[in-house]
Design brief:
single chain; 173 residues; mainly alpha; three-stranded antiparallel beta sheet; 3 strands
């Protein structure tokens, strides 16, 4: 691996680690609670109420509350880690700033939609089958999100990125 590519990998890891550490610190806990309530719980409740009004779902702080079981959304369930994964990759990739910004905006919207689908799926799994919920929550859905977000990044990089030979030669647009 070239030293330039090694530098990109190291920068990615450092950036991802720093973003994750800051997000999980006590300094942002109040913002995190607000973010969970308004950008995770409320949209998920709205979606479920739209397609399944008989469910009787309500938002109660960080909880999707409904007869038959309520889902508590905690730090780590709001999709921030997936957003940090994409953000770190986009910032370290051989992209022009315009392509980087467009990729981030589209990618973060994609992360939001994927995470909402994950929260809704987990809500229904919890309502119907605790073992399925545990499998989805602990293994399958986190892995699926990483794969889908990575696939988006690879697609974006292939479409808008600088070929590696040009990037390593210093020819970044």
């Amino acid at each position: 691996m070239s030293s330039r590519r090694s530098g990109w990998v190291l920068l990615f890891l450092l950036l991802f680690g720093a973003l994750t550490m800051v997000w999980s610190s006590d300094a942002v806990a109040t913002f995190q609670d607000w973010f969970i309530q308004y950008f995770t719980v409320l949209p998920a409740v709205w979606l479920i109420a739209l397609v399944d009004p008989a469910r009787g779902i309500m938002a109660a702080g960080a909880q999707l509350a409904a007869p038959g079981g309520s889902l508590n959304v905690r730090a780590g369930c709001e999709g921030a880690d997936m957003a940090f994964l994409l953000l770190s990759a986009m910032l370290c990739a051989p992209l022009s700033w315009r392509s980087r910004l467009a990729g981030l905006l589209l990618g973060l919207a994609f992360v939001f939609v994927l995470n909402q689908a994950r929260v809704v799926a987990l809500f229904y799994a919890l309502q119907h089958d605790r073992a399925l919920f545990d499998l989805l929550h602990g293994t399958l859905l986190p892995l699926l999100l990483v794969v889908l977000i990575s696939a988006f990044f690879v697609w974006w990089l292939g479409r808008w990125g600088t070929p590696l030979s040009a990037a390593t030669a210093g020819g970044t647009p």
